[in-house]
Amino acid sequence: MSDDILSIIEKVCTRVAAGDFENRVPKLGDDPQAEATRQAINRVLDVTDAFVRESGAALTAAADGRFHRQFLPRGMRGAYAHSAVTINRAADAMRVKVEEIEHAKAARFDLAGELESAVQSVSEQLATAATEMGATANGLSQFARDAVADAERGLGSVGALRDSSDQIRKAVSLITQIASQTRLLALNATIEAARAGEAGRGFSVVANEVKTLATETASSSESITNQVSTVQDSAKGAIRVLESVTESIRQMSELVDGIASAVDGNREPGQPGLSQLAEVLRAEVTRFVAKVRAD
């Protein structure tokens, strides 16, 4: 084979090695050996060119998601055929992975939608419950304040009753003293009437009546004193009970005020209540879901 023929073959191979698969070895003359070499080299170039074009087209289609476009292995043998099968298997694997990713993406969207729906429902229920709790707590707080006021008025009334009982006891004590003195005077009058004889008989009857009335008055005073003592003891017990109840209601009022503050969010500056927290939760989940869908 002449040097010119080798030079032509070298140039063609150099261009092909540089990526120019359009080059082919031209006719090299009438020498059968040279012609056979030319045809063999050109077949290699034809097969290589076809492999490169077909593999490029199959991989480009796979990159675009058109997995139905696979490598057509017709005319490929040996390593070329094996590589064609490998490319098709890789494209199939890519298709499976893409389908899995799409399925996962759809599932993520569905989950995000369900999460958003659930959180919105919960936040709405929480906001409604917070409103109702706030109204109830405010109502209870007002009720507790009214109860404290009523209990304090009751304390005042019972205290006034105790003071009145003290005044009654003092008045009864004075009546008892007067009755005692009246009995003494009646006794003296009876003695003097006896000394007067027949002339003092009428006065003696009057003196006995006064003595009897004074005795009955003293007895009634003693009964009243006992009743007043009973009333005072009851008043003391009622005062203790009312004081205990008032303190308990006052503590309950403070607790209810705390609940109302926590619900309304005005216990501390910058601290949200349940309604505000529900809105914050809904806003954050909406933002999260929007980000998930955008990704």
TrEMBL record:
Coiled-coil regions listed in the entry: none
Record-linked Pfam families: MCPsignal (PF00015)
InterPro entries, A to Z: MCPsignal_dom
Residue ranges of every copy of the Methyl-accepting transducer domain listed in the record: 97-264
SUPFAM superfamilies reported in the protein's UniProt record: Methyl-accepting chemotaxis protein (MCP) signaling domain
Gene Ontology BP term (one): signal transduction
Keyword Membrane annotated: no
Keywords assigned by UniProt, alphabetized: Transducer
Residues that span the membrane, as ranges: none
GO CC annotation: membrane
Protein name stated in the entry: Methyl-accepting chemotaxis protein (MCP) signaling protein
